[in-house]
Amino acid sequence: MDRDIIIIVKGGSIQGIFGAGVLAAFEKHDLYPKVHSVYAVSFGAHSAAYFLSQGINIMPHIYYDHLCKNPSAIVSLSFKLICKKLWDVFIRNKSADIIDLDYIENLEKNVIKLDFEKIKKSPINFFVRVLNRQTLKLEYLDARDQTLERIIQSSKIPPYSYSRKDDVYIDGGIMPTRDFIHNVIKKHTDKKIIYIFNDKKTFGRIVNKIPWDILDIMLKAKYLGFRYGLKHLFSIFNYPYISSLKKYPHVYPIYNELNINKREKNRDKVYRAYIHGFSKGEEILKKIGHIAK
Q: pTM for the complete prediction?
């Protein structure tokens, strides 16, 4: 059987539950023999790791019973807390620490353990996208080795999650980019590429978020420097929009139509996003002929 499928999994904190649902459908219907590579970034890298260890069904438990219940894992932001975090970043020069990656790392290492050996021995390539903070260039790291370190590196979003000043690699989704188009889609025209978005990227939605994006750039530039801030500013519209992907006949985009918040703590909404993802995953499997319509 030819391995003619590449999966791309984007991030988005709690929004990542949608992608976990899509991957759960792929696991249930045993897509593994057809998968050539998985490329992932940020929280999508964690879902991808559980998928490759054939344990993606545990992801709802991680979201419902850990990330949603633990108030420090992914912090819910009130106006008062936002003001405090802004003070920490701009005045005290501290990380905002909205996402506790130490907690998540311990969870995956000791509580709901990833099967690192199975990932390492998998015939499926596994790459995580990171940003090299020294060169400000994107890189793809082989995550079959040092899996936990790689997926944590791909989730570090200064100043929102803890990241030491000497960290070279940080979240590869930290600024808008069409890098997956240039380095995966255009280089693998002989493969079917399933592109999983945990929200729906459209030009209109990006325009509506510009004020928040400007604040986001200022926060990140405070931590990463002026050169980063300038590059991010000029990349603000450089997203791979759903419409732009439709011109590639070998690309199958999947996106979450429920649009849950990145810090959503309502378990019912999170559960619905997971089920929605599972349904979307089965739709794509029918479209590519893996399961009957």
A: 0.92
